[in-house]
Amino acid sequence: MRETKGILFNIDWITLLVYFLLVLMGWVNIYAAVYNEEHQNIFDITQRYGKQLIWISAAVFMIFIILLIDAKFFSTFAFAIYGISIFSLIAVLLFGKEIAGSRSWFQIGSFGIQPAEFAKVATALALSKYLSTFNITIKRFKSLFFSLLIILVPAALILLQNDTGSALIFIAFILVLYREGLPGGILLLGVLLIILFLVTLLLEDQFYFLIAALLLISGALFFFIKRSGINIIKVALLFIVLSGFVASVNYTFEKVLSEHQKTRINVLIGKEADLKGAGYNVHQSKIAIGSGGVAGKGFLKGTQTKYNFVPEQDTDFIFCTVGEEWGFLGSFSVIALFLLLFTRLIRMAERQKSDFARIYGYCVVSILFLHFLVNIGMTIGLVPVIGIPLPFFSYGGSSLWSFSILLFIFIRQDAYRWQVL
Predict the structure, then answer these.
(1) pLDDT at 206
(2) Which backbone phi and psi does 36 adopt, to 5 degrees?
(3) Among 56, 59, 262, 339, which residue has the least CB neighbours within 10 Å?
(4) How many other CB atoms sit within 10 Å of the CB of residue 9?
């Protein structure tokens, strides 16, 4: 009884309120996205919004259980949970149901469970446990190697399921490693490689021009910072690595990526328009969001939404409904709520006494932030369409449950932040 009172007293109510606001707004917008005059009852469980209400109710029950569990449970059994998750990812490859070209679902009656969503939680726990272990520092190659191994094993298994979007989300853990001491130069190199990849695709017929440009950049780099201790050998090595990367881009693009992935990237960088194919969703999404204006067309009055111009509008493109029916003000409110959640989570992570809780807090905010960034970026054409949900908003039980579990494990730890977990 005393511990229950302690949880109620110490729980971060601002984070709790933001969570329920986002879930409620998501449910209402799912209703708007699939609304039709034949099924007007928002509690109709034969419709997606009715099923989402069931998922929300189940999530609330899970939250209640998590808040009652001893906070030390999650650090004690982190590796066991991770092992179970890896087993489930292997099992779904063997026995799972293939949906939309991805074998990543266990079908249970009329409901489907996606282990990849819960793998993010398990990986966050395992990574936090490992990095919080005594004498582990990310600056040592051995520690970095095992940290990356923890991240890459589930990501690789999810890639084998042909679920590229979910696998890419594991990149978020790099931000956690950076917080724990990963050199910033590695992050900058990663960003540089992404930019170089896109530029190489745009200038695919001008390979020698790119190599010459890299040579000039390397020379300038050596000239301006040679006094800081970076010698010509390191600069030459960087040039060789980047040149090799440029030389491999076209081969990787043509031989490794699938056709729909290549088309989506080409649409993003402007090499293809394809408004009736891969670019259709994004084009209609922009129309829907832009047509909302400042205040929106009004609840259930969105024409792009009502007539299903945007596919997957209650899942990957749920933000279109917000933009069209609630306009700039509604879109700004949703984004502001997410930003409030992220800043709150960072503040909570920094006040933890336990290394495990702090690292896990950064895992939570990194995963949620990347989902938020990519999902909204997809709807306005800033990133390729890779099919990932908007946290707490998009339709789907697996995503809602996994995000809720991910968040409330941290809220549970924060409620007893003076304990060493």
Answers:
(1) 66
(2) -145, 160
(3) 339
(4) 8
d(CA 148, CA 171): 10
Query: What does the block give as tokens for 407?
Result: 């968040």
Handedness of CA 206, 210, 216, 220 (dihedral sign): positive
DSSP H or E stretch at residue 97: strand 97-99
The dihedral sign for the CA sequence 289, 291, 294, 295: negative
Q: Which residues, 6+ apart, have CB-to-CB distance to 291 below 8 Å? A: 297, 302, 303, 304, 324
d(CA 267, CA 248): 21
Confidence at residue 397, expressed as pLDDT on a 0 to 100 scale: 86
Residue 256: predicted pLDDT? 63
User: Buried (b) or exposed (e) across 37-50, using 16+ Cβ within 10 A?
Assistant: eeeeebeeeebbbb
DSSP-derived pairing of the beta strands 97-99 and 111-113: unpaired
Q: Convert 104-123 into a string of H (helix), E (strand) and C (coil).
A: EEEEECCEEECHHHHHHHHH
For residue 268, the model assigns a pLDDT of 61
The low-confidence residues of the chain, meaning pLDDT below 70, are 1-8, 100-101, 110, 185, 204-210, 213-235, 238, 255-258, 260-261, 263-264, 266-279, 305-309, 418-421
DSSP type of residue 296: -
pTM, two decimal places: 0.85
Q: What is the number of residues in the chain?
A: 421
DSSP state, 394? S
Contact between 22 and 14 under an 8 Å Cβ cutoff? The reply is no
Own/partner contacts of 202-206, CB < 8 Å, gap of 24 or more, are 202/269, 202/270, 202/271, 204/250
Amino acid identity for residue 338 in this structure: F
- Look up residue 409 and give its two tokens: 């494990």
User: How does pLDDT run across 193-238, given as a tens digit for each residue?
Assistant: 777 777 777 776 666 666 776 666 666 655 655 555 556 666 677 6
Angle, helices 115-131 vs 355-379, to 10°: value is 140
